[in-house]
Each structure stands twice: as C-alpha cells, then as structure tokens.
Amino acid sequence: MDISPKPLDKSFYNQGTLQLAQSLLGQLLLKETDDGIASGFIVETEAYIGPDDRAAHSFNNRRTKRTEVMFGEPGNAYTYTMHTHCLFNVVSGNVNRPEAVLIRGIEPHQGQDLMGKRRPKAKKKIQWTNGPGKLAKALGITMDDYGHPLDKHPLWIAQGKILKDDEILSGPRIGIDNSGEAKDYPWRFWIKGNNFISR
DNA sequence: CATCGGATGGACT
DNA sequence: GTCCATCCGATGG
C-alpha cells in the first residue's frame, strides 16, 4: 500500500515567482531514499527573479551549466553547491525566464529519526532544518537531484497546510549584501511565528 | 593558468 | 564576534 502524499500537479508551478514563493509556504517537501521517506513543511522561502535581480545566479540571463535548469520548465529542482553545502530551489517562471524559489526552512514531519541521524552535529531538533543547507542534508537532497521534476518520486512536493494571508510575513533576503539595490527587495517569505525560520 | 568570491554551516575566541 | 572547509563560476594574465 502506498501511503506517500500525492505530488502537487505540475500546473501548480505555473504562477508568478513572488506568488509561488508564498504558495510554497505550508506545502510538504518529501525525499525518499533507500533509508526511507523524510519530509517537512516549507516555512521559509526566497524568490530569485533573473535576469533583472542582481542577487540571482541567472542575473543578466547568465546561462551556465549550473543555471541551465532555470531556463527550462518550472517545477524542476535547481540544486547548487554553496561552499560545502547543497542548496535546494524550485524552478519557476516560463521557459527562458530563469527564476527560482530557494527553500530556506522546513518543519520536520515524516522520518524524523532519519533526519536526526543525518544531522549528527545538531544539538537540538531546531537545528536540523532551520537553514537551506541544513534542510537539504536532513532530507538527503544532493546534486544528484539537479533538474528533477518535483511532481515525481523520489523528490516531490505535496499539498500541506493551507495558510491565511496574515500568517505570511516578508522581508529582505539573507546573505546577499553585495547585490546592490536587490539586497533590499522584500522577496523573503516565512510563516509567522514558526520555529524553523533560519533567522 | 591563478585568484577571488559566495543565496552556508560549524568550530572556536 | 572570527575563521575556514571546499567547490563552481567569473575574471585577468
């Protein structure tokens, strides 16, 4: 019997990136490996809207092996390495619109024993998934997931909690101080009062 | 080729 | 607060 939550339809990703960044809040992100399923509710996101966003890897339509997937269909995984870590994004925007939503925080749901094992250095549960590199590690997301369609096993997004508008807050994005005007754009979104916000 | 700088996290002072 | 692991892409010679 398959009890895994059903993926959201691909059409879900066909909405503006700022709106998608908010729509993703509360949704369930799942990854299945040989060790089992681990999942969590998305609680913090950031929108990156190339080519006009200095903070986006796709700024100025910069097209490389790394950013290539952003130029394709929305609803695929954009993973990249930041120093020693893998970060996970949801590709948005139509073909040739290189936009994405970075997932910065999740609230652990299924497979919490597995997540704890994957985060041996975390002293507290809160540190398992309150940051983009942390949650990728906890879920077992790696560069092997680059380009994976998010409506399919083994990495997918399913319907989670329905939020009210007043539960969503926004503010400037994290870690992009050298991005000129773009550093102040309020393109970071999070669920009010949630414990698994990165900061 | 060399060098530099990150959409980070963890260890340490 | 500081330092650094370790990789990819940008830039300059």
UniProtKB/TrEMBL annotation:
<protein>
    <recommendedName>
        <fullName>Putative 3-methyladenine DNA glycosylase</fullName>
        <ecNumber>3.2.2.-</ecNumber>
    </recommendedName>
</protein>
<dbReference type="InterPro" id="IPR036995">
    <property type="entry name" value="MPG_sf"/>
</dbReference>
<dbReference type="GO" id="GO:0016798">
    <property type="term" value="F:hydrolase activity, acting on glycosyl bonds"/>
</dbReference>
<dbReference type="InterPro" id="IPR011034">
    <property type="entry name" value="Formyl_transferase-like_C_sf"/>
</dbReference>
<comment type="similarity">
    <text>Belongs to the DNA glycosylase MPG family.</text>
</comment>
<dbReference type="Pfam" id="PF02245">
    <property type="entry name" value="Pur_DNA_glyco"/>
</dbReference>
<keyword id="KW-0234">DNA repair</keyword>
<keyword id="KW-0378">Hydrolase</keyword>
<dbReference type="InterPro" id="IPR003180">
    <property type="entry name" value="MPG"/>
</dbReference>
<keyword id="KW-0227">DNA damage</keyword>
<keyword id="KW-0326">Glycosidase</keyword>
